Amino acid sequence: IDDKKPIVNAVNNWTLYAPASGCTVDLDSATFTRFDNCGIASESTLLIKPSTNDTLLNLTAAGRIIQTLDVDSTYMIVSNAIDASGNVADTKITMISVLDTIAPTINDNDTIRFELPQALCEIKYAVGGANDPFNLQISDNCLVDSIDFEINNSGIRENINDSITFVAQDTIDIEVRARDIYNNWSTENFVVVITDELQNRFVDGPQDT
After folding, report:
1. Integer Cα distance of 169 and 200 in angstroms
2. Can you say whether the dihedral through the CA atoms of 137, 141, 147, 151 is positive or negative?
3. In the prediction, which pLDDT does 13 show?
4. How many whole angstroms separate alpha carbon 78 and alpha carbon 170?
5. Residue 155's CB: how many other CB atoms inside 10 A?
6. How far apart are CA 4 and CA 88, in angstroms?
7. DSSP secondary structure letter of residue 88
8. For residue 24, what pLDDT band results from cuts at 50, 70 and 90?
9. End-to-end C-alpha distance for the chain, whole angstroms
10. Where are the alpha helices (DSSP H) in the chain?
11. Mean pLDDT to the nearest integer, 145-169
12. C-alpha torsion sign, points 177, 178, 181, 184
């Protein structure tokens, strides 16, 4: 007589992390395995999203399905099995949390050299606007939510999120901070060197004609 229940191999809690390539996670139904001394006759796997009470996956026979899960969500897996003798396994419930812990990527040069337009000794730019001279490339596997800029002016940190005034023959230390929609932060520092286009053109003085 076979009176041994099948064993469902499943943990109680499981955390999955979004990859650098995207903002979703693929769940392989084959991750949840069953064992029995006489063999498994049938098995079931339910994937439920408690926040909406939706059953996303209902696998009632041996097989394999790849299910995409959203970041910042919680899911519940209900697993069971029956062996050839009709013994029913103890139902296993696994709570799955899907998180994003990857901070935005900030691609910048250590030093940015910027020439003021000819005949101007200063110019004001909107930070992040169409003519933003920083030209930073900021990306995230999910979505960038905010970008902050600060300058170090004689040891005093000033926020320049709205605009910045460039003055000829100046060097500015700038810190940029980027945050994604899941509150992951990145920080980079760079230097902006401002030169005078007109002065550079006549660095050796005007030539007689």
Report:
1. 11
2. negative
3. 94
4. 64
5. 5
6. 9
7. B
8. very high
9. 112
10. 197-201
11. 74
12. negative
Contact present, 5 and 88 (Cβ < 8 Å): yes
Residue type, 168: A
Q: Rounded to 5 degrees, what are φ and ψ at 111?
A: -135, 130
| Residue linked to tokens 């897996």 | 77
Cβ neighbours of residue 115 under 8 Å, at least 6 residues apart?
Answer: 194, 195, 196, 197, 200
Which residues are within 8 A (CB) of 173 and not within 5 positions of it... i.e. 6 or more apart? 151, 152, 189, 191
Q: Which class for 31: exposed (0-12), middle (13-18), buried (19 or more C-beta within 10 A)?
A: middle
What pLDDT is recorded for position 198?
Answer: 55
Structure tokens at 65: 């399905």
Q: How far is CA 75 from CA 57, 72, 149, in A?
A: 11, 10, 38
pLDDT tens, residue by residue, 49-96 = 998 888 887 776 556 677 899 999 999 999 999 999 999 999 999 999
Bridge partners of residue 44, in order along the sequence: 80
Dump pLDDT digits (tens) for 124-147: 766 655 556 677 788 999 999 988
CA distance 183 to 160: 21
Residue with tokens 């007689």: 208
pLDDT of 197 reads 59
**Closest to 97 in 3D by CA, of 117, 77, 83:** 77
For the stretch 36-66, what's the b/e string if a residue is b when 16 or more beta carbons lie within 10 angstroms of its beta carbon? beeebeebbbbbbbeeeeeeeeebeeeeeee
